[in-house]
Design a protein that fits this description.
Elements lengths: L8 E9 L1 H6 L5 E4 L9 E11 L2 H7 L10 H6 L4 E13 L18 E16 L6 E2 L3 H13 L3
Parallel strand pairs: 1-3
Antiparallel strand pairs: 1-6, 2-5, 3-4, 4-5
Amino acid sequence: MDNPPQWSLLGALTCYQPWASAIVLGLKDVENRGWPFPHDTPACVAVHASLEVADDTSVRELWPAQAHPRPAREAQLAWPRGSFLGTVVITGSHPAVDCRAPYCSPWANPHFGHHWTLTDPQQLPLPLPATGRLRIWQPDPLHRAVLETVCLKGQD
């Protein structure tokens, strides 16, 4: 019998809404980034919702209709921002140019950077307010303690 990987929280990743909510709700299984994932995988990261909301044009273009109905702009603006929403496990990263139709996911942008593959989303019961940062960043010790338990919960 295989044992699941034992991971701890690697750090946090800030995403615009609605992408952050789509990740922790288990809808979005690829994160499009301009750089390869810089760590070994699998790795558990906290998902932080930026104060910013993705512009409506990019949401219309990148939200795959087959994945889930696209939320109305008013709903996106009401979703939690400036907060941790949960955790997700990053299982790999590959250049977008390596993806050929059919792409690795309906969420994959075939014309941009790298695709980080996501699995095992865990949503916090309530958003946990915090200031975000660029790239992979380290939460303060209190936030980290809470988020670490969420990562471990995903292994049950």
